[in-house]
Design brief:
Length: 238
């Protein structure tokens, strides 16, 4: 790390008026100036296609963009990112994958975004009511047992895509899932971030939709990051 210019100038002027011994002592003191301590954060992203980033580049999804943003604004920081997510996963699939991969319970941040495939695959809503709390409890455990280090992200509304054709029924069902997740999360002291309204601009702003006509685009994920970032910074307290 470079010593700031104003400090170097001070020592230059000071040393000019010092004896040899005094100069040596002053130089020794300058070597003991505090250094920036590198920061390493462990981030675990849990979800489905909206987490892994179907139809966008490898570094364009939500977790990767969030990682890059954090590393760019927190000095000397590194974010070690782990993603457990696959396109098509329901809550059941995610639960099973977490159990199989068995990640360590030592993460500084855990995000959870899950449920769209329960809706799309016409699973009983009661399954989500049972498994979302289980997944949230697991997310808390993976964040060293600290619920303050977990963020639940709302499910995008794919009704507002060329694939969804503006379906009112899809939108209503997604809202049902999001309402349950929001109420449960907040009742248990977990941060819930709504990004659904961003995706509901997809038909009027095609740039928010990926080339497949269904999933969020890189630009949409960037907007998600803008919405989530203040909550993450409050959690990490860099």
């Amino acid at each position: 790390m470079k010593i700031p210019t104003h400090i170097l100038l001070f020592f230059s002027l000071f040393l000019g008026s010092c004896s040899g011994d005094e100069k040596m002592n002053a130089f020794s003191t300058s070597q003991n100036l505090p250094m920036e301590t590198p920061k390493t954060y462990k981030y675990l992203a849990l979800g489905d296609s909206y987490t892994i980033g179907e139809s966008v580049c490898e570094t364009c999804n939500l977790p990767q963009q969030l990682k890059s943003k954090l590393e760019s604004i927190i000095p000397d920081s590194t974010v070690n990112l782990t993603i457990i997510a696959t396109t098509g996963w329901t809550t059941t699939n995610l639960k099973n994958a977490i159990n199989i991969q068995n990640p360590a319970s030592e993460h500084d941040l855990v995000t959870l975004l899950i449920g769209v495939n329960n809706q799309y695959q016409h699973k009983p809503f009661s399954l989500y009511e049972q498994e979302f709390p289980e997944l949230l409890n697991k997310a808390i455990a993976l964040a060293r047992g600290d619920k303050m280090h977990v963020i639940v992200v709302s499910i995008p509304d794919y009704a507002y895509t060329p694939f969804g054709h503006g379906s009112a029924s899809i939108s209503a069902e997604i809202q049902q899932y999001n309402t349950f997740a929001k109420n449960y999360s907040e009742a248990h002291g977990v941060v819930f971030v709504n990004i659904t309204d961003i995706t509901q601009q997809g038909l009027e702003n095609p740039g928010l939709v990926a080339e497949d006509g269904l999933h969020p685009s890189e630009m949409a994920y960037a907007k998600f990051v803008e919405r989530i970032l203040p909550k993450v910074l409050a959690i990490l307290n860099p």
